[in-house]
Amino acid sequence: MLPSLVIATRQSPLALWQAEHVKTRLQALYPDCDIQLLPMTTEGDRRLEVALANIGGKGLFIKELEHAMQDGRAHLAVHSLKDVPMQLPDGFSLGAILEREDPRDVFVSHHYRHPRELPAGAKVGTSSPRRATQLQYHYPHIQIEILRGNVGTRLRKLKEGEFDAILLAAAGLQRLGLLDEQTCTLLSPEESLPAVGQGALAIECLAHNREIIAMLHPLHHTHTALCVNAERAFSQSLSGNCHMPIAAYAYLENNEHENSRLHIHGYVGHPSRNVIWQGSLDAPLNAFDELNDASELGWLLGRRCQLETPWLDEMLALT
Asked: How many Cβ atoms are within 10 Å of 257's Cβ, its own excluded?
């Protein structure tokens, strides 16, 4: 066991909560280890004036943290898995994926309880092409506007009247104690299919550091990893990136039973034509008892999407 660990993290309140959560879990496992945080401001945090997809995507939130690990200032970094690119840089790996929290999206408004109540021209804020295309498809009368910033900033802009409603991830609001029953409505996956990996935390480290990977192993949640691996494979099969309106959600049915099944639902939307594709697959868990095998279910669903979506190539050219 290492005598000390440094955890690189962004400085937003949610990122700090996540890093502190991992620190607490590790400290309980290794009470003699000195564990410290290294808060950092990333390029994604500094460039709030433009859409994230136009300046390099969600990977901008983790590059500086990876540099800190490369140059020895940190041993690991904590991320929301939905912010982790499908392909990690050479030399890095996900040492642990923690048990998933609520993966759903939340509709937040001071005047309306559900998107169906929004009047024509209502302004809905989101920085997610995934959320935007799903909303626009079901409610073409509303107006989608870009909303960036940390959770507190987004809630403040809503309260100040810049938007009629905003969409956020349930897990982030729950972790910060901000899931207000008076203003928040949880949306089912059928209403808003979550982002790949939404609700799960991932711990990134250098791939060659076996000692750290061994220390992280008790935090790893196999069932969550199984599900998110299938989701990430679906996205990878479609060359998914931050520009693409893509979603996937996998879950285990009867996950403590010998007849467990792995289900995955996928979604792709066209950013400008108001058309979508949705599909699902499932298989017995014993057919996917290894992560690489579980990813096959995601790849199979991606292949189905490719065969059933004549506009996919056009959309890829746009993104």
From this structure: 10
In whole angstroms, give the CA distance from residue 95 to residue 121: 45
Q: Confirm if 232 and 86 have CB atoms less than 8 A apart.
A: yes
Residues with active-site annotation: 83
Write the pLDDT tens digit of every residue in 37-86: 999 987 655 555 554 454 455 566 788 999 999 999 999 999 999 999 99
139: CB partners within 8 A, 6+ apart:
115, 116, 118
Cα–chain center distance at 285: 23
> Is the model's pTM score more than 0.70?
yes
How many CB atoms neighbour CB 90 within 10 A? 6
The 3-state DSSP class for residue 287 equals helix
- DSSP tally for the chain: helices H, then strands E: 10, 13
Q: Is the dihedral of CA 239, 240, 241, 243 positive or negative?
A: positive
DSSP string, 82-109: GGS-SSPPTTEEEEEEPPP----EEEE-
User: Which residues 6+ apart lie within 8 Å of 148 measured at CB?
Assistant: 48, 51, 52, 127, 154
